[in-house]
Design a protein that fits this description.
InterPro entries: A/G_AdeGlyc_MutY, DNA_glycosylase, HhH-GPD_domain, HhH_base_excis_C, HhH_motif, MIG/MutY, MutY_C, NUDIX_hydrolase-like_dom_sf
Pfam families: HHH (PF00633), HhH-GPD (PF00730), NUDIX_4 (PF14815)
Shape: globular
Radius of gyration: 24 Å
CATH architecture of the largest domain: Orthogonal Bundle
Strand content: 5-15%
Distance between the termini: 65 Å
EC number: 3.2.2.31
Keywords: 4Fe-4S, DNA damage, DNA repair, Glycosidase, Hydrolase, Iron, Iron-sulfur, Metal-binding
Number of helices: 15
Number of domains: 2
Cofactor: [4Fe-4S] cluster
Structural class: alpha+beta
């Protein structure tokens, strides 16, 4: 049995029951693919269900307020995905009359849609014979064919896409693409795959050469930047708090946060207290809520977050009560803090 037929046979017997696999609606497939970038299926599934309930069509998403979109996305991370999703929904709704482009080349022109997502929509919705190449596909192909190309290198995408193009079932491109991705997600997993139960174990070169744990090769390492955040829960005489919108470029763009003091390193408590006193008048009390920082890990940054409660006797401009404040979209680390610190 050929490589592609073996994969498809395995897939039909082992595939997970997922809602976006029961439709060829490009809107729902687009949603699922954007949500599952850098996100596990178990985490992304409830968000997909929530979005398709609140925004059942691309027109509904296009008409929504951005803050509502970000609030619903809260906790999924990589918030630029949500902003691009919303912007592209507006473009499709207003400029394309709600109709998605029906081919890979034109899908690539949409903001937030790269080669992988365009290939997924083109094959799953329109049965175009174009391969998807994601982390799962890199892993399956590199192991099966013993490919030692660094998958982080500039030429890797072209090499693996060419190989996948030669392997794809031209009559069932959508089925093949689903199969190879699912195979990488469930069978040919990154660590300790069960090769004894693998239907490809008789012809897998990495298994024959005892190289399963060495492939795929990925040499490039991310440089992690450490940042030190001191968030202030500032409450006035009416027990109202204040928040700010992050409008600058970078992480959490257009989300809300508590007043922030960022430092280049972890500062002594007395220094942070001094800085707080320079920001607010008539302070009643300053309380460090936890002595240990919360470490919030992003792809290229580690945020060392400390929370403070500051009470002032003055009335804060634009102060919000707890319920009003909580309606805004926050990064998940702040959302969780506010959940546990009702004022």
């Amino acid at each position: 049995m050929s490589f592609s037929k073996t994969l498809i046979t395995w897939y039909l017997a082992n595939k997970r029951d997922l809602p976006w696999r029961k439709t060829n609606n490009p809107y729902q497939i687009w949603l699922s693919e954007i949500m599952l970038q850098q996100t596990r299926v178990a985490q992304g599934l409830p968000y997909f269900l929530a979005f398709t309930e609140v925004f059942p069509t691309v027109f509904d998403l296009a008409k929504a307020d951005e803050e509502k979109v970000l609030k619903l996305w809260q906790g999924l991370g990589y918030y630029s995905r949500a902003r691009n999703l919303h912007g592209t929904a507006k473009y499709i709704s207003e400029e394309l009359n709600g109709e998605f482009p029906n081919n890979y080349k034109d899908l690539l022109k949409l903001k937030g849609i790269g080669e992988y997502t365009a290939a997924a929509i083109a094959s799953f919705s329109f049965n175009e014979c174009v391969p998807v190449v994601d982390g799962n596909v890199y892993r399956v192909l590199s192991r099966y064919f013993d490919i030692e190309t660094d998958i982080a290198s500039s030429g890797a995408k072209k090499e693996f896409t060419q190989l996948a193009s030669e392997l794809i079932d031209s009559k069932n491109p959508a089925l093949f693409n689903q199969a190879i991705m699912e195979f990488g997600a469930l069978q040919c997993v990154p660590k300790s795959p069960n090769c004894d139960s693998c239907p490809l174990n008789n012809s897998c070169l990495a298994l024959a050469k005892n190289k399963i744990n060495q492939l795929p090769v990925k040499i490039k390492k991310l440089k992690i930047k450490n940042r030190f955040f001191n968030y202030l829960l500032v409450l006035d005489s009416s027990n109202k708090g204040i928040i700010n919108k992050r409008t600058q470029k970078g992480i959490w763009h257009n989300l809300y946060e508590l007043p922030l003091i960022e430092t280049e390193e972890k500062e002594k408590e007395e220094i942070i207290e001094y800085k707080i006193k320079s920001l607010y008048e008539d302070i009643n009390s300053i309380t460090l809520l936890e002595s240990e920082s919360v470490i919030h890990k992003l792809s290229h940054q580690h945020l060392h977050i400390t929370f403070w409660k500051v009470r002032t006797n003055t009335t804060l401009e634009n102060g919000l009560d707890y319920e009003s404040l909580k309606k805004h979209p926050f990064p998940i680390v702040l959302h969780n803090f506010l959940d546990n610190n009702k004022y």
